[in-house]
Amino acid sequence: MVRKPVVATISKGGYLQGNAKGGLPSTGGSEPPEQEKVVLKEEDHPAEGRLHHHRHHHRRRDLHLSQGRAAEHGPAWDCSLVIWTVCGVLSLFGALSYAELGTSIKKSGGHYTYILEVFGPLLAFVRVWVELLIIRPAATAVISLAFGRYILEPFFIQCEIPELAIKLVTALWVMVLNSMSVSWSARIQIFLTFCKLTAILIIIGPLRQTQHFKDAFSGRDASIMGLPLAFYYGMYAYAGWFYLNFVTEEVDNPEKTIPLAICISMVIVTIGYVLTNVAYFTTTISAEELLLSNAVAVTFAERLLGNFSLAVPIFVALSCFGSMNGGVFAVSRLFYVASREGHLPEILSMIHVRKHTPLPAVIVLHPLTMIMLFSGDLYSLLNFLSFARWLFIGLAVAGLIYLRYKRPDMHRPFKVPLFIPALFSFTCLFMVALSLYSDPFSTGIGFLITLTGVPAYYLFIIWDKKPRWFRRMSGKSFK
Fold first, then answer.
1. Bridge partners, residue 16, by sequence
2. What is the rounded CA–CA span in Å between residue 89 and residue 124?
3. Which sequence ranges form a coiled-coil region, renumbered to this chain (predicted)?
4. Count helices and strands in the chain by DSSP H and E runs
5. Which of 84, 255, 369, 400 is most exposed by smallest CB count within 10 Å?
6. Domain total for the chain?
7. In this structure, what CATH number is given to the domain that contains residue 260?
8. What's the whole-model pTM score?
């Protein structure tokens, strides 16, 4: 596909193609005029800013929503503290493994790039296929539903929030988010991080009561079949450590910045999350109330903070906005790299000439997000997306082990002990396999959609002798 005419044509409609660093690639060996340069604007200073952005991605997940479900599927509700701690350690192991991958394979794209490097184009295509059809729409729907619930909470203090109201507010908010410019959203990123930290500090502050620790390890009997779902909810809250690897080519001095950002952020986040759960258990909230609550942070605030409790759902809702904002940031880089490899239509890597946002990708993802938003509940969506996400993250980390033996002379500025990626990848793949039994419907659908990536690869990428009508439809999209 000839790049220069495409860029010229798309430019008339308000789009230009960005490169992996957000710039406009040159055509014909010469730099384009200054007025034609359009970039995916960076939000921060290359080093300190990436560290801040990485910490925000960790804190962006709805800890307060995942907490009850992690306790529900754990062996005993107080034992969910153990689950949260183990998930934090596992996330650290995964993050350290990604630090080695990111400093050894200095390309943007994260999971997609590492799977492409190790396992080849078929699995890499399937990875970006499920990102487009499952992971990104479902992840946006999940965090958007959390936003809708928390933002409506102050208006429904004495009654249950109607599910339709939550979904309508969520749909409206997704449209608002997708229409924002990068410059505007970047201005409030630090404020959103402050909101998340404030919510956590408010919750951690009242640590004082210990009556619920008297029988800390009593409760329901342990069940191995409940562990995958508890694992999904715990790991979901910590997820975000892999987003720095989506922008490796943009990181200043990645050999030092990536490991430093990962180690600092993981320690801070793990301590903050475990202390938040300890705070929940040291209040007068009973196990039954915890499990029945759809928004644990609100239940906690109502019990302990009095009139000030209205501030907590607002802070958490703003944190959810930061999550969705970060998702747009990450997906633009992933789709560009996949387009660069010829695995996605080139238009999905293009950016709006004024807003500097990946609007074509947003337009494709928006209807899929709306379908998931109105067709499923939050927790079934979590199970749905978690299957595909942790399957490919486990494969990517397993690829690190493969590279150790296949390419022992590969330059590795940062190297982790081999037991770290081995334990992490085994845990991911084991839990993914077990989840097919624990929740066969949600994870089964995710598995079937993942399998559709194989015929799609041969249809769109490998098959050369396409009919004329098919070439007209897709020939100008895929390289």
1. 351
2. 27
3. none
4. 21, 2
5. 255
6. 1
7. 1.20.1740.10
8. 0.78
